[in-house]
Amino acid sequence: xxxxxxxxxxxxxxxxxxxxxxxxxxxxxxxxxxxxxxxxxxxxxxxxxxxxxxxxxxxxxxxxxxxxxxxxxxxxxxxxxxxxxxxxxxxxxxxxxxxxxxxxxxxxxxx
Amino acid sequence: xxxxxxxxxxxxxxxxxxxxxxxxxxxxxxxxxxxxxxxxxxxxxxxxxxxxxxxxxxxxxxxxxxxxxxxxxxxxxxxxxxxxxxxxxxxxxxxxxxxxxxxxxxxxxxxxxxx
Lengths: 111, 115
Prior knowledge:
The structure holds 2 protein chains of 2 kinds.
Chain A: E1 5-7, E2 10-14, E3 19-24, E4 31-37, E5 43-50, E6 55-58, E7 61-66, E8 71-76, E9 85-92, E10 99-101, E11 105-110
Parallel strand pairs in A: 2-11
Antiparallel strand pairs in A: 1-3, 3-8, 4-5, 4-9, 6-7, 7-8, 9-10, 9-11
Chain B: E1 4-7, E2 10-13, E3 19-25, E4 31-38, E5 42-51, E6 54-57, E7 64-70, E8 73-78, E9 87-94, E10 105-106, E11 110-114
Parallel strand pairs in B: 2-11
Antiparallel strand pairs in B: 1-3, 3-8, 4-5, 4-9, 5-6, 7-8, 9-10, 9-11
């Protein structure tokens, strides 16, 4: 079973708009990570947020983490056509270096 | 793709035949992982390795075995391929950080079709 569940499953926006996707998880975590996957390619790491952090920024990306609600959100500001991809959250537990991935959100940015 | 290659990139095989997929890294990372990706299931961990000859099972390990005789190579073997193992297989690597924090770097994937 998946630890993380993304919402929505699919998102279609116009270039320049913001895209927000959410991730919910079930058990306690050490960290939560977001990855991007372009069609037919491997996943690319975007950002890691520790369990004791609430918000993190990287360029046009903003990630929040609410451990009390067991949820995280990824915001992409001023989206571009090149942001069209699937986005996955992945949770890491305290033991070891395993990640559990969610099912992903497919984002389509229309030019 | 961070110095990770997978071979073959595409393979079609028949039910009941053995198949071996190879992951090769040039980053000298300690951890290596095999995932499968299927529609509706995201990525699921098959097996992983935390050092040479040190491996452990993931959530969908039945029907798969792995071996790691060198730091740079991690092999995934389907002993007797079944149609349910038709999938895209990804290898990933990571280097353990303090506190269990580590991002993973992914290979380009292998598309396997079992007929």
